[in-house]
Amino acid sequence: MKKAYVFPGQGAQHAGMGKDLYSGSAQSKELFEQANAILGFRITDLMFEGTDESLKQTKVTQPAVFLHSVILAKSQEDFTPAMVAGHSLGEFSALVAAGAMSFEDGLKLVSQRAQAMQKACEKEPSTMAAIIGLPDEAVEKICAEVSEVVVPANYNCPGQLVISGSIRGVELACEKLTAAGAKRAIKLNVGGAFHSPLMEPARVELEAAIAATRLSAPCCPVYQNVDAKPQTDPEAIKKNLIAQLTSPVRWTQIVQNMLADGAALFIELGPGSVLQGLVKKMNGNATGES
After folding, report:
1. Quick check: is 88 catalytic?
2. Sheet harboring 160-166: ordered strands across?
């Protein structure tokens, strides 16, 4: 049975996350303390004792979810993936878990990514919205017709696509999509327009850091967000990581490709079980764990 390990992104966080890992093993505690030193603040205090509100800051959320996922992967007794993938931020967790990137380098990149994205969000007010009940093609067409900035950002599963852009662009698109028959158009409580052209300043800032980071071939194929294809070449992985910030997350296509390549058991490593739910919507026969 081929195991596919999947790693969640921003939005999966919750107060108290990782506390059981910290108290459960010396190795996990050491990694958490190492992370505190690398980041220069005690992220463990925010993860274990902070509020949901304090965890919502992008500069905190991203390293927190990354740490929970990676330390959980390292604590697995039988971590033998046939393939891995991560949703947005989760792609970094997947790469570290698969041995393509060191824990230290992964955490530093995630921290830089989070700060760069937060700065980009502060430059121009922007947002995202989940569109439920329309085919992807219909959402793409309407976004293209809106004169303000708005693009498809997260292809989560058939009938669920998140759009991203300027406040006005997302509002106009939601109006048009509702009129076109969308069951729901839900504005998301996020810091800004992730995976849209408005993240270009963050992409530029992160490009040099990713290019300078040492990557090795992963222990198994990594299905990347940008094109949903399995990848093992370090230079190609870097190129896709850089492009990821301004490109959509093709999660629907990733899961479909993993299933086509024989994935039978999907194991979600990280806080929550959002990805499990998306997998089950696409294939009810696929076994899942989290």
Report:
1. yes
2. 150-157, 160-166, 126-132, 184-187
Verify whether residue 195 is a known catalytic residue: yes
Write the class of the CATH domain 126-187.
alpha beta
Instruction: Tell me the C-alpha distance between 147 and 164, whole Å.
Output: 14
- The larger pLDDT score, comparing residue 246 to residue 123, is at 246
Q: Which of 68, 87, 126, 195 is catalytic?
A: 195
pLDDT of residue 57: 83
Give the start-end residues of each E strand in the chain. 2-7, 83-86, 126-132, 150-157, 160-166, 184-187, 222-223, 230-231, 263-268, 287-289
Residues 219-241, mean pLDDT to the nearest whole number: 98
pLDDT at 196 over 90: yes
- Check 88, 111, 166, 196 and give the catalytic one: 88
CATH code of the domain occupying 2-122+197-289: 3.40.366.10
Q: What confidence score (pLDDT) does residue 55 get?
A: 86
- Boundaries of every domain in the chain: 2-122+197-289, 126-187
pLDDT in tens, 97-118: 999 999 999 999 999 999 999 9
Q: Which residue in this structure is represented by tokens 């949903």? A: 228
Give the SS3 label for residue 217: coil
Q: How far is CA 99 from CA 73, 74, 81, 105, in A?
A: 11, 11, 11, 12
Report how far residue 187's alpha carbon sits from residue 95's, in angstroms, rounded to the nearest whole number.
30
